[in-house]
Specification:
- The structure is a single chain.
- Helices cover 53% and strands 21% of the residues.
- With 273 residues, the protein is an alpha+beta fold.
- The chain crosses the membrane at residues 17-39, 67-89, 95-114.
- Residues 70-111 form the Mechanosensitive ion channel transmembrane helices 2/3 domain.
């Protein structure tokens, strides 16, 4: 005991212990600062996403935010503990080697799972699409019902639910981000008075705008789109809310047909998108 006491009280040993304590304190402080900065960054990203025009499930957003907070905290704390253990003289080589072998084995067995999870995080944080959006992934088109960390679920308009692993999502078309365009082509006989038909269409589309809130701008009659040997095609367009173009197109078709029938004008074909 006397030898230990004399050894510890040596100036060199005291200085070494002092610097070890200083380094441990610095490691701890730096770890806390890193956690604080990371959490601030995530909170900023979540706030920016809340202001995005895309629609998100708030409960899911909070869950993902909490998950990322915990993941960062655990990772930094683990690194901090390992650095502190290294300062007190513990040999971490065998421990790291064992962890590396286990991690390598798990990595080979879960490559697709890791890919799905990483892609899921990018989908959420980059605001590629949100719950309630109408999207198309490859040949599958429908409304997003759920964005998970591993899979995305979309429901088609006929009722089928498609479950797509996030890692398989290569390209996404989002139909809900910006306004859509309803296009109606009215095919009438070529001998018809164009000015009369155009005026009827202008009056009709103005009336249609009063019937629905989906049209965001006054519809336009662009004029004659195609001239055939026996008929001609007049195009009408209407800017409307995202994914409502099909409902607006059907409403335009109905009202245009009614007005042309009242004016005793033959309509050869009505088509739109």
């Amino acid at each position: 005991m006397q030898w230990i006491s004399e050894h510890i009280t040596k100036p060199e040993m005291l200085a070494s212990i002092f610097w070890i304590i200083v380094k441990i304190i610095l490691i701890y402080i730096v770890a806390k600062i890193c956690i604080h900065i990371a959490n601030k960054t995530i909170n900023h990203m979540m706030l920016a996403r809340d202001k995005s025009p895309l629609k998100f499930d708030r409960r899911r957003s909070n869950t993902i935010g909490s998950l990322v907070h915990n993941l960062i905290t655990y990772t930094i704390n683990l690194i901090c503990i390992m650095l502190i253990l290294g300062q007190v003289g513990l040999n971490l080589g065998p421990l790291l080697a064992g962890a590396g072998v286990v991690g390598l084995a798990i990595g080979f067995g879960a490559q697709s799972l890791v890919k799905d999870v990483i892609t899921g995080f990018f989908i959420i944080f980059e605001d590629q699409f949100g719950v309630g959006d109408v999207i198309q992934i490859d040949a599958f088109k429908g409304t997003v019902e759920e964005i998970g960390i591993r899979v995305t679920r979309i429901k088609s308009w006929t009722g089928e639910v498609h479950i797509i692993p996030n890692g398989n999502i290569k390209q996404v078309t989002n139909f809900s981000t910006y306004n859509s365009l309803a296009v109606v082509d009215v095919t009438v006989p070529s001998h018809l008075d164009i000015d009369q038909a155009t005026q009827i269409l202008k009056d009709t589309v103005r009336h249609v705008q009063t019937l629905t809130d989906n049209i965001v701008k006054e519809p336009e009659v662009l004029g004659v789109q195609v001239v055939g040997t026996t008929d001609l095609k007049i195009r009408v367009i209407a800017e409307c809310k995202p994914t409502t173009q099909f409902n607006v197109t059907r409403l335009l078709n109905i009202e245009i047909k009614k007005q042309f029938d009242m004016s005793q004008i033959e309509v050869i074909n009505l088509g739109g998108s």
